[in-house]
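re: ur question from earlier - yeah i can do the single chain one, its not a big deal. heres the input i used so u can compare w yours
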Amino acid sequence: MTVKASSARKNGTTRVGAEAASEPIPLRYGDDPYVWACWLYYEDHMTQGDIAEIMGISRATVNSYLADARARGIVNISLEPSRLSSLSIAQELKRHFGLHDCLVVPSDDNARPLIDRLGGAAAQALAKLLKSGDTLAVAWGRTILAIAEQASVPGLQDVTVVQATGGTAASFAYTPELCASAIAGAVKAKLINITAPAVVSTAEVRDMLLREPLIQSQFGALAKANKALFGISSLRPNSTIHTSGFFESVSLQQYLAKDAVGVVAGRFIDGQGNPVAGPLDDRTIGISLDMLKAISLRIAVAGGFDKVPAILATLRGGYVNVLITDAATGRGILNADGVTELDQKLSQRPRVDNTVALPSNYRTHIKKFLNDPNDVVEEMLDGVVKANAAYVMPIKGSHRALVARTGPRPGKVGLVVGGGTGHEPCFLGYVGKGLADAVAVGNIFSSPPPGTIFQCADAASGGQGVLFVYGNYAGDVMNFEMAAEIAAEHYIEVRTVVTTDDIASSPLEDKEGRRGVAGNFFMFKIAGAACDRGLSLDACEAVTRKANARTFTMGVALEPCSMPQTRRHNFEIGPDDIEIGMGIHGEPGVIRERMMSADAITDRIMDRIFSEMKPAAGDRVAVLVNSFGATPMMELYILFRRVEQRLSAKDITIEANWVGHYCTSLDMVGASITVMHLDSDLTELLHHPCDTAVLRVG
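and the output i got, formated as tokens:
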């Protein structure tokens, strides 16, 4: 950290009090001079005299701050962990992406919704960043409205807020008009709206409206903005872009097919931050990406695992220079951009000195049973078909589309599941009588293509419709939706349930944005039983959605997995660290902590599950303790032992349990715990007979 010392006072004295500081408290420390002082003393190792100069206070006041911080619990031997982590992440984000500043909200126990915490942090930032005479361009979205609800910046003069995009007649609360108005009200600013629709019918209409003198004057005001405030939308099914209906007139699949990962102020960008051309470009009335980049201070407020690719793309594209996010998302962004050494304090990526001889036993590659790494999926599938010939057979000779030998039949709803390889026995192993009728198979950690999925739907169809059940990943959502459209053209009715059991991947208020992980096991079981019992398509969909809503999963990784093509780890975990909340593709967890005992790990997971499941004495559950690939049965049983103890202590009965390899992540060392909160319907379907290569019941 580089800090400029303040100039000497003319009279040789030092000003006393935080209010007389030589510079404002940096954004990442919030409004707390205690945290600022503690960071400089304990983390930057400055003397109390240096701190007094930088903060513009007396040395005695510095000493008082440090003593009071201990009394307040901010400091023990070091900064309190959540504050230390968030400050370290903020500092590394600022350094790595060259930001003007960064504010990171500490992770918590979901006591407050993430959007409220981000809104509060951004409101605090506005109070520091907004000055008299500023013109602030304001975009729209749920996060922007949350900021407005908590912002209050008194004492400003001559501030102008300009709506950054055109308006909409939609009924949701976070329209461009309402967001701009709410921010203007919070900071007592003059408001200038864009009095035109955000999206119009044709390019000609757009050009005509932009020639109108009134709208020209409004865009003239927008062009004078020196600060901008905006959120970042992912393209996940639960994102603002999908749920607002703002872009109903076009198919977002046209943008997804061009590798769009997010939306900034109504403009689509790819993973590197490049604009993605599409049908809306010439029909959108609002700030352009070039206009945004020309604004001197660009404040982006966004958080949540589903937004990591979109936020990273926004950073890479240079559209933001002040980022406000949460600790888990910040770590995910850094990991995704190659900053993997995130211990208690983030630092620059270590440089390897190639002149130093490595120990003779040092290995850079993982040994695997392979022939040509490029053939690994096809050879594996060939082995699956041969080993499980009694259960599955290829559709039209393709090992990427497999159908159950017994299962599909006239008058029965068909069940199609699918996803990428690398999770075996997941997907492939759950095809057979009483469970899935067909499975679509993708490359490693990649979605199967739409044509393959449709082949499965066609093979599974018995004339009563087909149910798709798959995990909540952007590629899967896009390809299964396209397959459903193809099926509709062939008069096959399709319903979809997207699994979202990973409680670590998004906060409680954003359950629809969560990933589908090992809990797929239970959703497949319930859906398969409902289909096999002859329930209607409506009923099969409804009971599967109920199972999804009552299934809770959380995982912990001890060591990373390695990809067959590289035979190298796909992320890094320190020798004494664990990743709590890790995804099955190596997605970042909630927090990285020091290794702890098996019981302590299990307790962390069960406490989180209990906080959402809210069980009562006498309830019944089903439990899955699942290996990520390299964790042996011995350790899984140790985890299950503690799960049973915790459930028993609450007088909760385990109706059924499974312990083993059910949804893996290649050779990752780690495990997940899944609990399904049963009712009478789910219990009955759970015990319904099934017979597949991996799962047999009854």
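Residues 242 and 454 are 24 Å apart (CA to CA). not sure if urs matches, ping me
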